[in-house]
Amino acid sequence: MKQTPKNFILLVEMLERELAASVLLGSELASRGHHVWLIEKGRFRKSPASFAPSIILEKGVTTGCLPKFRSIRGAGHIIAVMCQEGFTYRSGEDYIDRRVFSETLKNVDYLFLWGEREKQDLELLLPQVRGYHVTGSPRFDLLHPRFAQSWEAKKQEILREQGDFVFFTSRFGSANHFRRTLDETVDKRMETYTGDAVHSAPARFRYLRQLFESYMSTIDKMAARFPNLKFVVRPHPLEDPETWRTHFKDTANVSVRDGGSVIPWLIAARCVIHSACTTGIEAYILNRPVIEYHPKAIPRSELDPVLPGKITGSLYTIDELAQWIEAHFAKEVPVNRRASSDDLIAYHLQNAREPNAYTEMAAAMESFRTPPPWARFLNKVSRAHASKKMQKRYIELDEVNGLLQSLVSCNVRDRFVPAVVDEVGIKLQ
Asked: Do both 221 and 367 map to the same domain?
């Protein structure tokens, strides 16, 4: 018997990190006959009653999410969550103190988990939700060979523009935020963290600022040591790229590139350097030469994630890093794949070996209960409506359609079905 179509709203916050995966998941749901919209997170959260009762895929379960979720449920919606920070973290206790608030979970209907590690760490909290599913993330589906063709055109464009280059990825959104000072970031985090994380916040962010400045200095030294090589810096989506551009404005062989997915840049790069960054793991999965650099002069913080470095290996001195770069430019060096690293990724990431998170999530979402009959009444009487906010959009239809077109070559859909803009937002068909 054919299932009655359901309404799904997939919230997108950081386009560079989330849009491609949301398009992949949304396209799968749409192909199953459901109504699917891509909506900017801020736009939806400020006006949840402007949207018909739907199943909402949210991004986190922090203390700051609690009033938003109450408003969303008060407007008749069902909430599912996949925490964007549930993949790499130092300890379960610290992850919960910073990112998982018990009272917020009580306002969540369904939870998606990255892998067995997150499931074990949240074991005592999972009974608070209606149901949970260990699926991994569609972001990492897109790293598998099955989806390589979807990145080929962008990869070739990058190579035509850049030639061979060393790729430095940055993860210092807190130390170089595009909108807040470091002190403002600390104050904001202390408002949302719980437990020991509140007290450790100032030290955590001072440490990250120190690492950020050292990382910038390291790129300076590499650019000076190898004046004939090209270096590309990729700021984190939350960073202010102008800080990087200003710093390197007089360094001819360093360029700063932000915007768009990082994946084709990782594929195109001759080699990749990261600093305890998730993109390091992404590069490893893509079978690219990648290494973590952590300056020996700065002791590792007990709060910093160690997973990326465990996966890729680490270097600690300028000379070691210079030798590594030189080796990877001299010739194609075989990527050091290790069974232990592959097993470690699989423990943290359910879809590490098979690109099936998007199909597993879609199947689970089909089974979710729909908003109850009285949800339309809740939606109508809710005060959470902001007509002006409804008009503000930053997701570009052309970009969505470009991503949909690229998926055809990967046999996700048998033909290109363009998205459309309706009175709600960008709808996938």
From this structure: no
CA pair distance 193, 162, nearest whole angstrom: 41
Residues counted in the chain: 429
Sequence-distant (≥ 6) Cβ neighbours of residue 233 within 8 angstroms: 168, 170, 219, 244, 248, 254, 255, 256, 257
Is the full-model pTM beyond 0.90?
A: yes
- Domain co-membership, 189 together with 233: yes
What gap in Å lies between CA 362 and CA 21, rounded to an integer?
A: 12
Same domain, 232 and 108: no
Question: 3-class DSSP state for residue 11?
Answer: strand
Task: Report CA torsion sign: 229, 260, 352, 292.
Answer: positive
Do 173 and 236 touch, CB atoms closer than 8 A?
A: yes
C-alpha span between 43 and 166 (Å, rounded) = 37
* Same-domain status, 250 and 327: yes
261-304: pLDDT as tens digits? 999 999 999 999 999 999 999 999 999 999 999 999 999 988 88
